[in-house]
Specification:
2 copies of one chain form a homodimer. Chain A is mainly α. Chain A has 9 helices and no strands.
Chain lengths: 206, 206
């Protein structure tokens, strides 16, 4: 969960020592909790520092602004989601298996981290461009992955497929949260309904 | 756009005169603009009244709290989306046509009213229950409609199909906003990629 980011994030100065990382994660963890309970604009830098038991000066060692800390949270979710997806699809040998395991990984990630929706969808109220960049870059990397398996796709329009598949995963994740689904119930939904849908479609043709 | 709601909304007292409706819509219109630019918690009742050129007392004639006005905005989007969907699918004779025209209606609604995402997804930061109720009730009515056409479906699990189809429409709507798609481009995306996807699926089976 607290694995370190591998690439630089604008406005964020990553720590150089273990003590630094401890303070950094105290700040990001406190901020995420506060942003989920209240809105971005309601939470001040001093609220974050108070909850993280750090001095306000410490905040500004790592983050230029409160928006930069929010951007870090979005980037960190993106990194953790991608990591969870890539681990779950590593053993798969077909696109069908990759879609099934990828969708499961996203849905289970959502169930375990329901605040992902607060942070990602909430970014629309913080910075529209941040929200757009998140989905556009996710769609592009999804489309690249689909292109590698293009012989297994019914349709060459990988960008539309990417948005459609992101939409399906996001909304099955919402449903799993709403209905407090167990992993077994998620597996059942994927095997009995998601797989047939991507293998045969939704509408029965005469 | 300013068609009047047909059912009572808790915490909202609907006007009884034309003058009352004028003030009511001045308040809801001003609030929506402010909630899209700033967050719910940043905007005060007096900000809304100032922008709507009404007295603060007028606000409380129609809304018990600021959250009740927000609930009105969510309910009003739900009503307008459902109306747009039902008008667009009225001439359709098959489920395939209904899905195509329904998806187009939602995507075009999103393109014309991009703030629908700010208000609906933003409701997660205002009142989690409001957000959940919106999607659960939308999914239930979608599932009821799919049940009526069940002979035309590949799969009897209408609830999973409803969430998946809501996800597809929501994310194709996002893409259409991001890419500033024209109606002709939306039609192309639906005919060349959405229709094949729901008719034949996504993965080509050997």
């Amino acid at each position: 969960m607290n694995q370190r980011p591998s690439k630089p994030i604008p406005g964020v100065n990553l720590p150089k020592t273990q003590l630094g990382w401890d303070k950094f994660y105290a700040l990001t963890g406190a901020a995420e909790k506060l942003f989920t309970r209240s809105s971005f604009h309601e939470v001040s830098v001093s609220d974050i520092c108070r909850a993280a038991h750090t001095a306000v000066g410490t905040f500004y060692i790592y983050f230029e602004t409160k928006t930069d800390l929010y951007r870090y949270l979005v980037e960190d979710y993106k990194r953790r989601i991608k990591q969870s997806l890539s681990e779950s699809i590593a053993p798969c040998t077909t696109r069908l298996e990759r879609e099934r395991e990828g969708c499961k990984a996203f849905v289970m990630f959502s169930v375990k981290n329901p605040t992902v929706y607060n942070i990602i969808w909430g970014s629309l109220a913080v910075d529209k461009q941040l929200f757009k960049d998140y989905y556009v870059s996710f769609a592009k990397s999804y489309a690249r992955a689909l292109t590698e398996d293009r012989e297994e796709l019914c349709n060459p329009d990988v960008m539309t497929l990417s948005y459609a598949l992101m939409g399906i995963s996001s909304f099955l994740g919402l449903r799993a949260i709403f209905e407090k689904m167990s992993e077994a119930e998620v597996d059942k939904m994927l095997d009995e309904s998601f797989l047939p849908m991507i293998k045969e479609g939704i509408i029965r043709m005469p």
